[in-house]
Amino acid sequence: MTTTTTALRRTGTLALAAGSLLVAGGAGAWVAVTQQLRAEKITVPGNAPALKGKLVQGPATAYVEALVIKGNAERGAGGRTFADISEALRHVEPGSDEERALRGQSMSLSTAASLRTSLMTSVLAFGVSALVTGLGALFVVTGAQLRRVDPK
Fold first, then answer.
1. Of 142, 146, 139, whose CA–CA distance to 25 is shortest?
2. Are residues 20 and 136 in contact, defined by beta-carbon separation less than 8 angstroms?
3. In this predicted model, what pLDDT tens digit does every residue of 111-151 receive, in sequence order?
4. Where are the transmembrane segments (predicted)?
5. pTM for this one?
6. Residue 139's closest CA among 29, 18, 26, 24?
7. What DSSP designation does 96 have?
8. Are 101 and 114 in contact (CB under 8 A)?
9. Are 23 and 143 in contact, with CB atoms under 8 Å apart?
10. What is the full per-residue pLDDT of the chain (152 aa) written as tens digits?
11. d(CA 55, CA 52)
12. Are 70 and 112 in contact (CB under 8 A)?
């Protein structure tokens, strides 16, 4: 075998090994995120734009659930943002009914933002795991082809 052929075959072996690890890691991450979401037993509500009644366990259902939470929070706050409510709190009498109502809206928006962030993080995790799995598959195919280099 020539030095070039040997180097190509070794590179192919490394690509196969790295690709296999990437595929396993990416698939494992996808499964782990799916299991975590499924364990929460969240169902997409009836006011969702799509996937109504589906269990939140994948990127599409997690994204739709995040949209629903955002819409519900905005409606609950009368279209106000967290910044709007914070500003309004500076101008109301402490201990008043208005202050209590604003604090309730502020708390609801904060909770909604936290839930949406968690769901969007899972959507991102699905995307990264798909990317890693795809790159791993590319490495496996490339490595297999490099290992087939003919020594002649």
1. 139
2. yes
3. 999 999 999 999 999 999 999 999 999 999 999 999 998 87
4. 123-146
5. 0.85
6. 18
7. S
8. no
9. no
10. 678 899 999 999 999 999 999 999 999 999 999 999 999 999 999 999 999 999 999 999 999 999 999 999 989 888 888 888 989 999 999 999 999 999 999 999 999 999 999 999 999 999 999 999 999 999 999 999 999 988 76
11. 9
12. yes
- In this structure, what token pair is assigned to residue 140? 């496996």
SS (H, E, C) 20-80: HHHHHHHHHHHHHHHHHHHHHCCECCCCCCCCCCCECCCHHHHHHHHHHHHHHHHHHCCCC
- DSSP class of 95: T
CA–CA distance, 59 with 57 (Å, rounded to integer) = 7
Phi first, then psi: what are they for 22, rounded to 5°? -65, -45
Report the length, in residues, of the chain.
Answer: 152
Name the residue among 106, 97, 123 with its Cα closest to residue 37: 123
